[in-house]
């Protein structure tokens, strides 16, 4: 049976209604695909705590986790990913990319212009249709 991997992703929106998108590195699963910063939920951790921990580890970024967007399950060759996305607010100043090779702030209307990890497609559709805050 394939590994079942519970993952959380942060959809960080700035005051211009742009969304933070991050590009995965080469040499890993889903190389060069775009994703939302985040990662695997550890045993005993809440989704909210996992998201805050991952953002600190990956980007040295403190966030406030807000509303849940959607949970989707996608089967890859390496396992089954259950991805839950949350809107989030960036609380701290500068982002430092410690794991991703690139990032972009994209206007909500252009969010579907990147080559996203397949598990993200339902979230992308929902975000694109959501109203600005
Ligand atoms: N963070 C994040 N991961 C995603 C998204 N979409 C998607 O399919 N994934 C996948 C990629 C990974 O297989 C998994 C997230 O795990 P991770 O970020 O902790 O793990 P990783 O593969 O980068 O690295 P590792 O810790 O296994 O070495 O979920 C997304 O939007 N954000």
UniProtKB/TrEMBL annotation:
EC numbers, comma separated: 3.6.1.55
Pfam families: NUDIX (PF00293)
Keyword Hydrolase annotated: yes
Cofactor: Mg(2+)
Gene3D superfamilies the record matches: Nucleoside Triphosphate Pyrophosphohydrolase
Protein name in the entry: 8-oxo-dGTP diphosphatase
Catalytic activity: 8-oxo-dGTP + H2O = 8-oxo-dGMP + diphosphate + H(+)
UniProt keyword annotations, A-Z: DNA damage, DNA repair, DNA replication, Hydrolase, Magnesium, Metal-binding, Mutator protein
Family (UniProt): Belongs to the Nudix hydrolase family.
GO molecular function per UniProt: hydrolase activity
């Amino acid at each position: 049976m394939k590994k079942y991997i519970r993952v959380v992703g942060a959809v960080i929106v700035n005051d211009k209604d742009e969304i933070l998108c991050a590009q995965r590195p080469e040499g890993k699963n889903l190389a060069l695909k775009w994703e939302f910063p985040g990662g695997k939920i550890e045993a005993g951790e809440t989704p909210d705590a996992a998201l805050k921990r991952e953002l600190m580890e990956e980007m040295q970024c403190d966030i406030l986790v807000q509303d849940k967007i959607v949970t989707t399950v996608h089967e890859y060759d390496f396992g089954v990913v259950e991805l839950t996305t949350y809107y989030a607010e960036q609380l701290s100043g500068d982002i430092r990319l410690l794991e991703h090779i690139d990032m972009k702030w994209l206007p909500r209307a252009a969010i579907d212009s990147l080559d996203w990890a397949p598990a993200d497609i339902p979230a992308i559709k929902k975000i694109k249709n959501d109203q600005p805050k």
